[in-house]
Batch of 3 targets.
Target 1
Amino acid sequence: MDVKEGLKEIRAILVENSADRETVKMVDLIAQRASLPAAAGANADSVLQLVRMLMRNPVSSANVTVYNDLVKVESQLESQANEYRSMRAEEDRIASAKPKSYYKALKKDEKN
């Protein structure tokens, strides 16, 4: 995932959560740095990873409100990830179930 896109997504979540100005300002500053040519190839595994990186930022360490805003975003993203994993597990369970034709054949064999 592109870091700039991930930071935009994080910023949108922060705005939606009515996060503190300092938190949004920090994300904007880091997004500006990510826009520099030297950071053109910057990638992250996920938005959750970016949030955790932001939580280790010196601004986050010095300001409890900023840190708490990021913790809230982290919690929301983890919750979404857990919901997605459960949905995928259910889909996999359904996909591995026996097809309808199996039960039709079984019923036919019982009649005979």
Target 2
Amino acid sequence: MVLGHWVTVDRVGQAASDVDFLRSVRPIVEFLGGELVADGGNGEFPIERNGSVIAHVRNAELHGALERLIETVEREAGEELGAMSRSQKQVAVRTLDEQGAFLLRGAVDRIARAMGVSRVTLYSYLNALERRA
């Protein structure tokens, strides 16, 4: 049985409840940038249910991670970073910081461009977060 493009379940005796379970966790896995696959390899996380491995989670690659984080923030806010108000941008920076976006190389420049602000402004948002902590 094929579940969309994300996992093939063709094991003999695969329970319908397992298929339903995988369908329910799919949005969470994809939100985190991962992918569900039937057979796992090195570094993939097995999903066990009732004592059996029913699928694996393939970790997200770092390539494109910053774009995925930005897209998630924009989707949650309902608008693009550049169209946000100052206070919305500050919330977006806090969210991106909590998700580790600023640990990625080039993140400050990329996020500042997307927001339509200078690096100095973006650093002021980050510094304000540190002062509140």
Target 3
Amino acid sequence: MVKHIVLFAFKDENKQENLLKAKEMLEALVDSVPSLKSMEVGLNFSKESRAMDLSIVTTFDDKEGLELYANHPKHLEVVKFIKSVVSESKVSDYII
């Protein structure tokens, strides 16, 4: 099994609106991308300066499933939106 974790820092402009839209778009991928086995989308409540605004934790059967997800047209639509509203992101991929 593969875990794919991404953390996002959003730009200040329309931040709350963009966070909620991104969360909704990401959660919709569970029904749209067959290789995506599960997804958790979390909105941050920490006030620490190192905190990120939104996190996703996804699972796939294998690396190929992650690659299929990464290139799926519905995922690419979400990526396009998120890239326009975030200032930074971090990723971690690992096998469990």
